[in-house]
């Protein structure tokens, strides 16, 4: 009996292997498919890919294969045959050729959590419409003026809580999350500190845990718990959207000329609906779901970037001295003139912005983008077969000596002479093409405000900590530091 079971297992593996090789061989016969190795049946080269993610050089998976096969190669990750591009020109072509040849591709757990109408998965005119609405809102002068003050208040309140810590450790990664979530929710739905904000924070933390997990929705599983948390968030946010819609309709009926101020993302989406009644209006459930989804990049990437900026500055005393000098000069100017800080003040801090650029390049918080080919596509002589995924590796470009000298060294001064890297598509921390992050300027502002008030208020000593790159970028110990206020500093 046991021999019979063992025999059928062997037969099953053999049949699976034969089917897998037949399928891949059929694709391999197409001319122009990049060289590479698809690895073992089903698992492909997944184990090596994950293992490299736990090292200090996660790009080593790409580097090994780039050396063997060239800048564009084929592999198999998570049971999916993919073409990997470490070529900035190929990456640009993939990112800009949106909808015509490529559609977004994400793990099943993300698709389950986001739903069918997620902005992550939509394409074509609807995506352009939503992306355009949010981009215009985030770039508006009214928001820039208002949000600068909101970020300052959030940063100052958080930093003020450090003043009586004595010898206790501050965990930077935890602290900056208090700042970023408060700012994020204010931008999206205008909720300030209080019970509603704490409720959203608690449920969001539970929701976000399911982004990378087994796609099983049985009670007790990670995905099930995350979906339940999303339902609670959805109920609360939808109530806000519905109330805002009723208020907007009432004001519009009473005086059409008196409701011109867009205060948050909900307003921006509802106003577009009001101005586009002849077109397909956006359902309120659709608006609610996408408001929740917009919390993800802001709360997952921003705290990491701010934390890593502190880590990198801690390990580079010369850079820390220069950024402190630049920001102290701005602070003295504002003290003498009694003027408030503006968006422009922070964005014009040249060395501070160089530190931010170098942090984004070195950290690679968004390490790649996945797309799926809807037809055979050829780019620079490389064929991406229909149905295959293509992974545009930003990390491989950011950490390539061909584009950045000593790429593993934190060097903010490189940006004084490496402006061409941005022009040549070698700097893509915010993605590119039609899906370029609409909040990129807001992200830079938030980091700049945090760094300004940190370096002009405190000295600190960071304890030993290391960056973890898989499944997402974060600090292993949340970056513990001991702080000393400026007036008590050496």
Description:
This protein has 490 residues and is of the alpha+beta class. It contains 18 helices and twelve strands. The strands form four sheets. Strands 1-2-8-5-3 form a five-stranded mixed beta sheet. Strand 1 and strand 2 form a beta hairpin. Helix 8 packs antiparallel against helix 12 (284-314) and helix 12 (284-314) packs across helix 18 (440-455). The longest helix has 33 residues, at 222-254. It holds the Pfam family p450.
What structural category do the secondary elements indicate?
A: alpha+beta
Strand order of the largest sheet: 1-2-8-5-3
Number of contiguous helices: 18
**What is the CA–CA distance across the termini?**
78 Å
Radius of gyration, in Å, reads: 24 Å
The arrangement of helices and strands along the chain is: HHHEEHEHHHEHHHHHHHHEEEEHHHEEEE
Q: How helix-rich are the residues, as a percent range?
A: 40-55%
**Overall spatial form:** globular
The average pLDDT value, as a whole number, equals 85
Give the low-pLDDT segments.
Answer: 1-20
Number of strands: 12
What's the story with the biggest beta sheet?
Answer: 5 strands, mixed
Strand content: 5-15%
Pathway: Hormone biosynthesis; Steroid biosynthesis; Plant hormone biosynthesis; brassinosteroid biosynthesis
InterPro entries: Cyt_P450 (IPR001128), Cyt_P450_CS (IPR017972), Cyt_P450_E_grp-IV (IPR002403), Cyt_P450_sf (IPR036396)
GO molecular function: 22alpha-hydroxysteroid 23-monooxygenase activity; heme binding; iron ion binding; oxidoreductase activity, acting on paired donors, with incorporation or reduction of molecular oxygen, NAD(P)H as one donor, and incorporation of one atom of oxygen
Family: Belongs to the cytochrome P450 family.
């Amino acid at each position: 009996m046991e021999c019979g079971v063992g025999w059928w297992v062997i037969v099953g593996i053999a049949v699976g292997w034969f089917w897998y090789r037949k399928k891949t061989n059929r694709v391999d016969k197409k001319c122009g498919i990049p060289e590479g190795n698809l690895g073992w049946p089903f698992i492909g080269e997944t184990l090596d890919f994950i293992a490299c993610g736990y090292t200090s050089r996660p790009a080593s998976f790409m580097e090994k294969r780039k050396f063997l096969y060239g800048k564009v190669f084929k592999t198999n990750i998570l049971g999916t045959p993919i073409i990997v591009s470490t070529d900035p020109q190929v990456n640009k072509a993939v990112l800009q050729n949106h909808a015509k040849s490529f559609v977004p591709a994400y793990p099943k757990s993300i698709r389950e959590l986001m739903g069918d109408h997620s902005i992550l998965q939509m394409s074509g005119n609807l995506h352009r419409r939503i992306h355009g609405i949010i981009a215009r809102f985030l770039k508006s002068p009214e928001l820039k003026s208002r949000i600068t003050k909101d970020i300052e208040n959030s940063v100052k309140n958080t930093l003020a809580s450090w003043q009586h810590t004595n010898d206790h450790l501050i965990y930077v990664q935890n602290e900056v999350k208090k700042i970023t979530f408060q700012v994020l929710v204010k931008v999206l739905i205008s909720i300030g500190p209080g019970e509603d904000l704490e409720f959203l924070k608690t449920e969001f933390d539970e929701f976000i845990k399911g982004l990378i997990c087994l796609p099983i929705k049985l009670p007790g599983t990670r995905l099930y718990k995350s979906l339940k948390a999303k339902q609670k968030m959805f109920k609360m946010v939808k109530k806000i959207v519905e109330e805002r819609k009723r208020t907007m309709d009432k004001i519009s009926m009473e005086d059409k000329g008196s409701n011109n101020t867009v205060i948050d993302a909900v307003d921006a989406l509802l106003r577009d609906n009001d101005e586009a009644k002849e077109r397909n209006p956006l359902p309120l459930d659709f608006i609610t779901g996408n408001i929740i989804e917009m919390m993800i990049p802001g709360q997952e990437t921003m705290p990491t970037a701010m934390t890593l900026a502190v880590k990198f500055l801690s390990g580079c005393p010369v850079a820390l001295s220069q950024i402190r000098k630049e920001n102290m000069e701005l602070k003295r100017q504002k003290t003498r003139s009694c003027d408030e800080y503006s968006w422009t003040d922070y964005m014009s801090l040249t060395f501070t912005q160089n530190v931010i650029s170098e942090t984004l390049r070195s950290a690679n918080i968004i390490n790649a983008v996945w797309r799926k080919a809807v037809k055979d596509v050829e780019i620079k002589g490389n064929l991406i077969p229909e149905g295959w995924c293509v992974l545009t590796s930003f990390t491989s470009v950011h950490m390539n000596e061909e584009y950045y000298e000593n790429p593993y060294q934190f060097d903010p001064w490189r940006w004084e002479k490496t402006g061409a890297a941005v022009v040549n598509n070698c700097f893509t921390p915010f993605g590119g093409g039609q899906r370029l992050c609409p909040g990129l300027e807001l992200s830079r502002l938030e980091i700049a405000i945090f760094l300004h008030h940190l370096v002009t208020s405190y000295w600190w000593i960071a304890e030993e900590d290391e960056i973890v790159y898989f499944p997402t970028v974060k600090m292993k110990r949340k970056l513990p530091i001991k702080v000393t206020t400026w007036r008590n500093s050496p």
